[in-house]
Amino acid sequence: MSLRIHNTLTRQLEDFAPIEPGHVRMYVCGITVYDLCHLGHARMILAFDMVYRWLLASGWRVSYVRNITDIEDKIIQRAIERGQTIRQLTDEMIAAMHRDFGALGVLQPTHEPRATDYVPQMLELIEQLQARGLAYQAGGADGPGDVNFAVRRFPGYGKLSGKSLDELRAGERVAVLGDKEDPLDFVLWKRAKPDEPDEAKWPSRYGPGRPGWHIECSAMSCALLGEPFDIHGGGMDLQFPHHDNEIAQSEGAQGPGGPGFVRTWMHNGFLNVDDTKMSKSLGNFFTIADVLKHFDGETLRFFMLRTHYRSPFNFSDQLLEETRTALKRLYTALDAAGEMAPLPAIDWAEPRAAAFKAAMDDDFNTPGAMAVLFDLAGSVNRGAAADAALLKALGGVLGLLQQRPRDYLQGGGGLDEAAITARIAARAAAKQARDFALADRIRAELLAEGVELKDSAQGTIWVKA
Q1: Which of 224, 35, 23, 25 minimizes the C-alpha distance to 112?
Q2: At residue 208, does pLDDT exceed 90?
Q3: Where are the alpha helices (DSSP H) in 398-457?
Q4: pTM of the model
Q5: CA distance from start to end of the chain
Q6: Which pLDDT value is given to residue 171?
Q7: Hey, how many other C-beta atoms are within 10 angstroms of the C-beta on 140?
């Protein structure tokens, strides 16, 4: 079966084939780096890391662009609040982002452009829009103002989100600003304010200022991938207005009969915390770093990939604990199989591998692919140790199961391995002396300290409880 992807633009599953044979070009809206990354970011980043990995595993060359927004109102305000330059703040947050993503096993994209490096391309795009009558510079008592996109002059605006112009009434979803010809118009170039720091200002024919958020992604994606390109991804919350605006800008600059902007649009589902949308005001807002204090990155990755990328995702400590137990089952099977030679290549005709591939080719159905991993683990536990190599290889396609099994099972918590080993020996001696009460007490004490003992004919091993 060939890969089929749900295209948000057409609202249906479609057979996927890249525009350029053998080469997939993909852009994903990245992080606005004014604060630490949160669980919603993890949901989106892991969804498209999974897509990237499967495209590579399917034999395509992939040019993957994931941008960084490093100039924006919140960034300017946060830098002022902290007494930092904008560059100091954004460098700090980008370093933290990379640490978080590294802990989650996220692959580096092919390109990770910073918006501030592409301001000339953004200004060029704005000039093209102005030349086609789609952009205008507002004026006021203080002189020339922002440059805005004239939404009503672009036929078909809202075709991605499905929102009509009549639905988008002033004062509901779009703010009304006095220097706009229409409340639906959006900013392409923000005229600088006198009290803003100099590093937030670029010279232009429209006066000193900075780009609006939407123009950034249009300029960076087209500069690095060309037009049209294959896949554009992001969170479901970006469909309107961000992605609708990207389409309007990019296709508007091309003019009628242009090649188009993007063939396939993909959006991941919302993240909820205990069945409630994540919100700082509700007190259910968690950064990735918060969660990593209590759970390892692979468990969080496994947790998020067990839900289909387009489905709503519910986060809770209880569900994460259950996921950790499930991941330990897979690692326990690998541990029981002992040392194994790595699989030279996956034989996709093998029935379990074929079932895994069929699931992933069906719009990246990771729950179906995970079911194959658990089937293989069950086979290993029933004595088919040879299946462990396939289990590890298929797990690797999703960025899972690549640690030494015993290291994963014993990892974390600052446990004293030498002391644990000594107490296991003391328990063995107590059992040998038929002092079963002492042996049971040692097991219970270790369990209370987060250490679970597992007895077998080959002896006793321990894992982190």
Answers
A1: 224
A2: yes
A3: 405-410, 417-432, 436-448
A4: 0.89
A5: 41
A6: 44
A7: 11
